[in-house]
Write a structure and sequence with these properties.
Layout: H1 2-23, H2 32-54, H3 64-83, H4 89-125, E1 130-132, E2 142-144, H5 152-170, H6 173-189, H7 194-226
Antiparallel strand pairs: 1-2
Length: about 230
């Protein structure tokens, strides 16, 4: 009876340990999600800065990679939900937050791409146009295409949202600090030239997600090695 009881206790302990390990292998705790978003947003932000500063075009909208990043997130989340025995409602909530975040980023980019052209057509139909006039007369007037001033500041503001939520829910300080820094970069972007906002956004992506993702990934892999 003693041997049977001892074996039962050991089996229970092993079962609990295995469940905890599986629960800690979520999309957000493995670092995959942070690395994914940090990479695609940083690349899109920095490349947009270089395209606008040095006047070249790669032939397609680089921000489409942000939309593409939603696909692996959904696939990974579905696989984890099927394989994980422990139901973690907080992970379902975070998956939803990040999914809505990705869609919102794509929506903002769509707005930025479509609205200026539509606005230009509307004001042309009304018989007027936007013109850049140099007060000192050093250059002739230039016709301007409508554009939202410092629009990328809204992107930076949005970056802080899922970061802060994840940092609070997971009690992960690197993301908490990253979100705070992102809010600071948002304030800075309101006072800088529009082209520099893309650099600030790229920096926000690295600070909010890429660096925390590396930290999470190292912790996760170290934990996995301990249980091999």
């Amino acid at each position: 009876m003693a041997d049977e009881k001892k074996m039962t206790e050991q089996e229970s302990l092993d079962l609990i340990t295995n469940m905890i390990r599986k629960a800690k292998g979520s999309y957000h705790e493995t670092g995959i999600g942070s690395l994914l978003w940090g990479t695609v947003v940083a690349i899109a932000s920095f490349l947009t800065y270089f395209q606008r500063t040095y006047d070249f075009n790669i032939g397609f909208d680089i921000w489409l990679i942000v939309l593409a990043a939603i696909i692996p997130q959904i696939v990974i989340s579905v696989r984890e939900k099927r394989s994980t025995q422990v139901k973690k409602y907080e992970d379902d909530a975070l998956n939803t937050v990040w999914l809505v975040f990705g869609i919102s980023i794509f929506g903002l980019n769509f707005y930025q791409s479509i609205v200026p052209g539509v606005t230009a057509d509307i004001i042309q139909q009304e018989g007027w146009q936007m013109t850049k006039n140099y007060l000192d007369g050093s250059k002739p007037d230039e016709i301007l295409k409508p554009f939202p001033p410092s629009f990328y500041s809204l992107f930076i503001l949005l970056y802080a949202f899922p970061t802060l939520v994840t940092g609070i829910v997971k009690q992960f300080k690197p993301m908490l600090f990253g979100a705070i820094i992102a809010y600071g970069l948002f304030i800075c972007s309101c006072f800088t030239r529009s082209e520099y906002d893309w650099l600030l956004g790229g920096a926000a992506a690295i600070i909010c997600w890429f660096i925390p993702g590396i930290i999470l990934r190292r912790k996760y892999l170290a934990q996995q090695r301990k249980h091999v």
